[in-house]
Design goal:
Layout lengths: L2 E6 L5 E7 L2 E8 L5 H15 L9 E5 L5 H18 L3 E4 L1 H14 L12 E7 L4 E4 L13 E4 L6 H9 L4 E4 L13 E3 L10 H9 L31
Parallel strand pairs: 1-4, 4-5, 6-9, 9-10
Antiparallel strand pairs: 1-2, 2-3, 6-7, 7-8
Helix pairs in contact: 1-2
């Protein structure tokens, strides 16, 4: 039996879940402000206590590895690496877009969201990258990636070939995630569903990676930022008199 602590901080939601043999048994999360650094340790402790577990009972820690928020990713990965180093257990990285796809699939199976015919759909998670740009990738119904991960500026022509193809086959082009709402305004013929990032989406991919012993080097692993972190220069003169 594998106990895996799953951590998702790639976007506005701070989420921690406990997965046992690939199934989520507990989750704590908040979307009330970006207080990931303050919440992540508290959530992990609460989950372990509620399930009568000690940190030493964990077999691995899985973390959403990006793309996503630069600061959020660093917080989640740093916390996960610290736990793994102290406990001497494996670190597992799960692509943030794959995890978001898993949340959508589980929500559809549970009837929380509705996709007409899942087995005919193309599924497109989108993580907000500001303005009209999103981190995204298109998946088939089984979770196989059909495109590369990219930072995409969305306009009316985006995904045109894939949208036309799936429509011709009687399926839907489904978009979701915190970057999707703004995109449905410019993309014709898409089906929008509300799906938020959650550590629950890491449970199954993390178990698959654990079974394959697909682990990361704790010392050298870094999040997949996709874009360089850009510091905006202040226009104010700090020496000017107020």
């Amino acid at each position: 039996m594998a106990n895996i602590l799953c951590i998702e901080t790639s976007a506005g939601v701070c989420s921690v879940a406990l997965a046992v043999n690939g199934e989520t048994v507990a989750v704590r999360e908040s979307d009330q402000g970006r207080n990931h650094a303050g919440n992540i340790g508290v959530f992990a402790d609460e989950i372990l206590r509620a399930n009568d577990l000690n940190p030493e009972d964990l077999d691995a820690v899985a973390v959403s590895s990006g793309p996503g928020s630069y600061t959020g990713l660093r917080i989640g990965v740093s916390f996960a690496k610290g736990l793994c180093y102290g406990l001497q257990i494996p670190l597992i990285a799960v692509d943030s877009l794959e995890a978001l796809f898993e949340v959508a699939r589980e929500n559809n199976q549970a009837g929380i969201v509705s996709v007409g015919e899942w087995n005919k759909a193309l599924l497109t998670p989108m993580i907000d990258a500001r303005r009209m740009e999103v981190y995204t990738r298109v998946f088939d119904p089984e979770g196989k990636p059909l495109t590369e991960v990219e930072a995409k500026i969305v306009d009316s022509d985006s995904f045109a070939e894939l949208r036309q193809r799936v429509a011709a086959e009687g399926g839907e082009f489904v978009i979701f995630g915190d970057g999707a709402a703004k995109c449905r305004q410019v993309l014709e013929g898409v089906h929008y569903i509300e799906v938020a990032p959650s550590a629950c989406g890491l449970s199954r991919p993390a178990q698959r990676a654990y079974d394959r012993e697909q682990w990361e080097d704790i010392a050298y692993f870094e999040p997949f930022y996709l874009k360089d972190f850009v510091v905006t220069k202040s226009q104010k003169n700090p020496l000017a008199k107020r």
